[in-house]
Amino acid sequence: MAQSPFDHPLHDWQRRLIETLEQAAELPVDTRGATPFTHHGEVGPGMHLRRYAPQAATGQRPVLIVYSLVNRPFILDLTERRSLIAALTRAGHPVYLLDWGYPKGADRFLDLGDYIDDFLATAAEEVAAREGATADLLGVCQGGVFALCLAALQPQRVHRLVNLVTPVDFHTPGDQLSRMAQGVDFDQAAQALGNVSAEWLNSVFVALKPYRLLAQRYMELPELADHPEALHDFLRLERWMYDSPDQAATAFAEFGRECYQRNGLLNGTLTLNGRPVRLSAIEQPVLNVYAEQDHLVPPAAARALGAHVGSTDYGELAFPGGHLGVFISRRAHAELLPRIVAWLAE
Amino acid sequence: MASGEAFNHEWILRMGDATPVGVLWRALQADGGSPGPACDTAFQGLRSQLDTTLSGLNAVATSAGATGEDGVDPANETPQWLTPWLQTLARLGPWQHGLERTQGLQIALDRYLHAHVECARILLDSVRAGLDTLEQRLQMAAQDPQRPLPEDYRTLYEWWLTDSEACYEQALASAQWAEAFGRLANATTALVDRYQKQLDAGLRTLDLPNRDDFLDTQRRLVELERSQRRNTPGDELAALRDEVARLRDEVGALRAERTPGHRER
After folding, report:
1. Residue A22 is nearest to which of B3, B164, B165, comparing CB atoms?
2. ipTM of the shown complex
3. What's the CATH number where A275 sits?
4. Which phi and psi (to 5°) does residue A276 adopt?
5. Going along B82-214, which residue ranges are E strands?
6. Hey, of A1, A4, A6, which one would you mutate to test binding to chain B, going by the most B CBs within 10 A of its CB?
7. Does A135 lie in the same domain as A64?
8. Residue A4 sits in which domain range?
9. Domain tally, chain A
10. Which of A167, A263, B138, B151 registers the highest number of CB atoms within 10 A of its CB?
């Protein structure tokens, strides 16, 4: 056999990579999340309302989590140690999660009005009926936009609002995703492609940070050899990153056109079922959480809410990290989530 | 399967050769840890690979009907002025629909290939810029004792990653990229649309259900579900009460008509 031209550290790295891959092959990866839940009805086609029981009977108000359509929500319940949902149930909140599911063929004709004015409103109504109290909404990313729309159009369904990394101004400098969206004919895409493929959308997200997501991420993989818990977390996150639903065509085109291209949420030109969404109509208390190094939702895009929301009880929390760090980083669980829980308990 | 069976020495060697950092690291080692002739050759080789890829893409775009500045297609020398004539001819005669579809598909394919090449060129340029930056950084470090050269693969990898990513993000932030990306996305969906139209026409000829038929059914289903969802139970009950009252009135009127007294009148 020929002499290797590589030095020993490189050999070591490659051997550790092999060991890690072999260990990874033995680990199961499930996407249900770490916290047990019960199904509490179907609020739309394939859309289920999950209930996570409070771990203490403290009489806290229910929290309805509104997740983005783009990925699956198990990032909020990745492991027992890194679970936003568990943090809320530990604080005594009954937690509900609207699982949007995976759109099927006919769902291509569902629009934002269907998603927000109908399905989300029904979910909020169900929670209020079951718990005897109007829910606090916790909107995540695009789900935060949905929560804002519901709070503006059907204020009786929302007690208070927590938004995590939620874009409001889609035209801020440095918003790379928005810049790329400006020239896209979303309606033509919806008509030709139908429900927009998750693989296609993922490739766009990956293309924003290909060196980090396709190179650096795996370069560090060998460091997880013989750390089964960390490797398991890595695999779960890996599954989450690419376990994405297709996007219902009409709603996707509407969001791209009205929010990304026309900045309609900020300008007040976004309409649902013929009714304009006015941020100034939101009078509930709002806590707006943004990430300082967010490459998907720049801080300015999220913070724009403060200048436009009607609420006089508006607060912000800045998190020193990236988009995902808000949900899964140790720092978020040690510092950020306790502050959110405390705000909800006020 | 044991490691030794699954991944042997050969695999490790090939893996190193397959990545630019692997190639550069080997060159740096051959130069004794400081950039020299082997590194020059390695950088040149990587740039040549980019040039080869780009020229291949350009060839595809050219064969797809790129036109030169003089308006003449360099591949088949078809004058550009002839295109409108060909399009007009396709609108005459019994096969005009099929010809128009075929021409539309060809045009969409050309636009897609051009848009693809335009995006690829921007990205390849950013890769080249990343290599240039890395080479300069290595040379500057070699001349400056205050800046240590990479002593292990991992450090070289970090240098490559940082420089390449910075150049990539610069390219992504440009208006040129945003426009090119938009054109590629739109050209892709337009091409898909053209293929769908061709396929739909063929299926219609065979009296088989096509995409239009499925979409029509799906649209009706969603509209029906939406109208049911938005008719609240209260509205439905009121509508039913109105309907029952109307039917009662109608039945009463009919009975009245059938009574003997009514006939006499």
Report:
1. B3
2. 0.84
3. 3.40.50.1820
4. -70, 140
5. none
6. A6
7. yes
8. 1-28+197-244
9. 2
10. A167
